[in-house]
Amino acid sequence: MESLDVRGRKKILRREFLSKRAAIPRAERDRISREIVKKFLATEIFRTSKIIMAYVSAPDELQLTELLAECLAAGKILAVPFIAGKGIMRAVQVPTLDALEPDAFNIPTVKRQPQIFIEPAHIDCVIVPGAAFDIHGGRLGLGGGYYDRFLPQAVNAVKVALACDFQLVDSLPTEAHDAFVDIILTAKT
């Protein structure tokens, strides 16, 4: 019964946080995105990571195009999610940003052959999306469970969340299968 309560609370919170995120005016979202991406690019994590996996932003998410471009410009191996089946996500290498095209879910990924997949254990850093995060690294995902299944395989990766200030809270309801992040960067943190 407890699990149903947690799932129900997560669903309500997810709706609230995603609604707040969607209400941010585009100019403000772009400003916040630039600020947080700049902060991440100045970290030791970015400097020392050879293989970085990041998501391609949906319109209402923090915009990561600059981060993706900087990874490639710095000579890093960049990977993005590739949905390989129901509940299955893989990391596919991005040769250039021009190689990104929408998949069946309208999320840009590398679809053209040849695709180069990267083993999760080889990834040094994963930029993790989410509706909200808590100060303990808890993550309220978007509801599909893809990252909850993928992140435990990325055993050598630092898991980083880039978030708006309102997305960082004291605590979130979590379940045993929920994957946590190591670092959360906001404009204030």
Write up what this structure looks like.
- The protein has five helices and twelve strands.
- It has 189 residues and is α/β, with parallel strands linked by helices.
- The strands form three sheets. Strands 6-3-2-1-7-10-12 form a seven-stranded mixed β-sheet.
- The longest helix has 21 residues.
- 34% of the residues are buried.
- The mean pLDDT is 93.
- Give the CATH class: Alpha Beta
* CATH topology label: Rossmann fold
The portion of residues assigned to helices is 25-40%
Determine the N-to-C terminus distance.
36 Å
Number of H- or I-type helical stretches = 5
CATH superfamily: NagB/RpiA/CoA transferase-like
Per DSSP E runs of 2 or more residues, the count of β-strands stands at: 12
Radius of gyration: 16 Å
Would you identify the CATH architecture? 3-Layer(aba) Sandwich
Task: Provide the succession of SSEs.
Answer: HHHEHEEEEEEEEHEEE
The main β sheet shows up as:
7 strands, mixed
Class computed from helices, strands and strand pairing: alpha/beta
User: Strand order of the main beta sheet, please?
Assistant: 6-3-2-1-7-10-12
Provide the low-confidence segments as ranges.
Answer: none
Task: Name the average pLDDT.
Answer: 93
> What percent of residues are in strands?
15-25%
Query: How many domains, as an integer?
Result: 1
Shape: globular
